[in-house]
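**User:**
Everyone, produce one record:

**Assistant:**
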Amino acid sequence: MASFVSNNLPAALMGLASSPAAVGLAAGALGASMYLDARHNVVADLKIINQGISIAKYIQQQVELGRNHCLTRFQESVARLPGKCAIRGSDFREWTYAQADKSSTRIAAYLLDKVGIQSGDTVALMFENNPQILLCMLGIFKARCVMTPQNTNLRGAALLHCLRISGSKVLIFESVYNSAVNEILPDIQKLGIKIVFWSHTDDVPNIKEERPTFKVHSTLSETILERSKADLDQPERIAKIIKDTKPTDPAYVIYTSGTTGLPKGGLRDHFALIGLLAPNNPISMEFPKEHDVMVGASPLYHTQAFIPFMLSMSNGATFVPLRKFSASRFWQQCIDYQVTSFWYIGEMLRYLTVQPPRPTDRAHKVRRIGGVGLRKDIFREFFDRFGMEIILEFYAASDGTSSIFHAYYGGVEGIGSVGRRGPLLRWISGAPRLIKVDEATEEPVRDPVSGLCIEAKVGEAGDCIGLYEVGGPGQPTYKNNDAATNKKILRDVFVKGDTWWRMGDLLMRDANDWYYFKDRIGDTYRWKSENVSTMEVGNLLMEYKGLQEANVYGVEVPGNDGRAGMAAVVLHENSKMRNRDEVMAELGRHVLDDATWRL
């Protein structure tokens, strides 16, 4: 998830924030611009500019006050709403803000004292969506460690790779993933990673749970934390760790597909989260509000669930981690858990739209949703059928510096668009910008005389790029992968010496300044909410000695979002294909499943 306006406009708006003349100019221009608005989006542009100035001021104030930790606003929620429900589990167990605060403080102290890690170390998590992973996330942040949730579809070499590149010192997991951990146990031990098992039966005895058969460093549960409260209740110590946090201290690693065949670890710092969680950020202002109950329908290793959780804790809302998404049961679950809002991925809304009509379609209280990837063909249908009042569709990336959003309240304008930005906002903010790329090499097309990049024309798909400040706060990098980071940075784009970040997607701007997502760039395809590396699939197929050549690519499937994977293969004479189940088990079902296995 990009850090939205706070990172979109760092140079321009941080300067504007300290300029009264600029604020006055914006206000004066507002009154004179109405006649231009229909054509050039002036009023909306000025609103976003003013919001950007406000966010820049907020961030500047936070830094000056030494409030650099991503949980600063969560602490405010705890102080303001100690008895309110912060987290509601699928079994309807609830944790108030005070309880979540106490449990996460104990987890932080446990990691530092019992497990023996230090602030700055990386802690990996492997859980289904449940309250325990949320408490662990808060606890890891409180210890000022780097939180990295693992993609629970990964197994074997791919999972080990993620643990290695993130530099994980600890892996906390639950029993569902006993076999996944056991499979790579010798390699984990060689890396010196301490393994901590979270036991649910300690807290809820009637739950069926298989304990790991292999040796772990320790076992953790809320019951164990309660028994050790004399040692672990250290609010003053944890408060000091939070207070001493610097804006550039790393906060979390979220994985993204890698064109070299294995995931990359996108590293973000506390500064990036401060901007995203700012109370005056347009996303934070709308989703969620304090009265909301927000459901996390995507896996929590996705920013589409992790960020809504952080926003919920910052805004004083209630968050419900949905263990598994079911299109047929989703609206009933929203009714049962009293859900009022959620973040989506486009495929999820498509699954809901193709369901037969049910009484629950409008019996729920959900009226405001936000997310990414909602396609034009179902945009209006979903809005009308399920009784929405606002859909906030936006474009961003967990490892990006640019974003754009579209608040849709009904009507026909902008359906399927990720947002609108007129010439005024493009000129001041500098983002997002779309540049031409060579279709064959996917490299930027440069002017033969100046050597600078060429901006995509109206109606022409272009590589989306955002401003990038090398070494600056809030800027994305790939952990332990300088080559991948440098590959994303473009220099000498519009003027000599400037630096920009490639988002990795093709967008298109129409004649009315509406932006539309077109496709991904590079050797990846997106299927069922996962960005999949064609190289990763191809490398595994080529492990079969009977295979002479494999070319993996994404293909469109009618009625589905994204692209499914397809492999064109050349077999050695008299060879037989490798067992399908073996391949699926190693790659994970998000890479090869029943709908995508076509050889």
In short: The CA atoms of residues 1 and 397 lie 4 Å apart. Confidence is low (pLDDT under 50) at residues 1-23, 586-599.
